[in-house]
């Protein structure tokens, strides 16, 4: 029988100018009933509030293992950290989700700040850690792997680290390798993932059986939305069995569509590499009469790469993203804009995110909804379709010859090593995950919130996908930069009418 334990929000006096440490003492001292494998505790999200201040905390091993001993952090004797003014992060250190607030408004949601704690809940010599990578490729995965290994070894003296090969299914297909600083020393210079990856293959019970059988007590999971949902299930099963296993997530998606965090690792590299494709398209169309270049970039549901690459390039005439429906015919439509821009400049470049215009393509090819092993909807290839659509319109309707140039750099972008900015970012993520796991936190992911690294409940980053907000200033900046149509002149009926005509 499941027992549900919840507790009310801890209210603090409004006269306190700072968040009282009493609330954190409450969290540290609160001990849930002990559990067995037959009885599980379903904790509500840990929220502490003083009316206008909310802390969204992450689980700790002592929530279901109340008698777990703690030990002094080995970093107390670290030569590297001896120069730091304050070696350990205070329990009162939090990161605000919203940095801009109104003077009289609520202070809002906060998360625990990452970093080393004064006490740890693992003896380094007893740690057996594992690292797994899941889902699609992204620049920086190898850097994260390397820095987890180096962080565990150099900072905490952990020697026993396993690499799980081939994604989640690697847990129960027994594909593992020993990871040491020497083994991973130069993998950050390569693209892809040193540990191999796959989609799907998640069997919670088999995975946790393997974790238990191998004596693994720290699990580092690198992946996106679907991977983190799997990590949450692993944490829940570990908790149900009462195992001293810390489960830490490192969010990965090249689309930058993970909620709460500022951006995902590899995004800066992807935007930078996308410039090469845009530059090539611009050179091509400048060199011919009526040149139209189309560059397809990643962005299944979120157009961040397309938007930021467009803003960075200055050579893009129009950017099409999934969040902003567009239409072809009539005033303010894409065809009219292309014709006008060709008359003015004799060429133009269009950047299209892979998820844009899917309703048009689907209507034309009568495609069935299919999903990949991760549960993502398989997209139709909008790039070639859009190229043919534009070419056919101007050739047949306008009697104008256009020179189409199409570039799809998707796999080139995914496969490259991370740049300097992302390498530093990956180090912060990896070290944050290591500090959190050693301190006994579990069921969390790590990421920057308003440029400060924080521990975030996994549920917060999987509850929704981050998308471009068309009412924000960044999209307005893009529209001003390209001078493209906003397509808002067309109501939904116009879009639906065009779909029906395809």
UniProtKB/TrEMBL annotation:
Residues given in the record as substrate binding sites: 253-255, 298-300, 354, 411-414
Reaction(s) catalysed (UniProt annotation): beta-D-fructose 6-phosphate + ATP = beta-D-fructose 1,6-bisphosphate + ADP + H(+)
GO biological process, one term: fructose 6-phosphate metabolic process
Enzyme Commission designation: 2.7.1.11
Domain called Phosphofructokinase: residue spans: 129-435
InterPro entries: ATP_PFK, PFKA, Phosphofructokinase_dom, PKF_sf, PyroP-dep_PFK_TP0108
Residues reported to bind ATP: 136, 199-200, 224-227
GO cellular component: cytoplasm
Pathway(s): Carbohydrate degradation; glycolysis; D-glyceraldehyde 3-phosphate and glycerone phosphate from D-glucose: step 3/4
UniProt-recorded name of the protein: ATP-dependent 6-phosphofructokinase
Residues the record marks as site: Important for substrate specificity: 226
Function recorded in the entry: Catalyzes the phosphorylation of D-fructose 6-phosphate to fructose 1,6-bisphosphate by ATP, the first committing step of glycolysis.
Subunit-structure text: Homotetramer.
Keywords assigned by UniProt, alphabetized: Allosteric enzyme, ATP-binding, Cytoplasm, Glycolysis, Kinase, Magnesium, Metal-binding, Nucleotide-binding, Transferase
Listed SUPFAM superfamilies: Phosphofructokinase
Cofactor needs: Mg(2+)
Record's subcellular location: Cytoplasm
Regulation: Allosterically activated by AMP.
Binding site for Mg(2+): 225
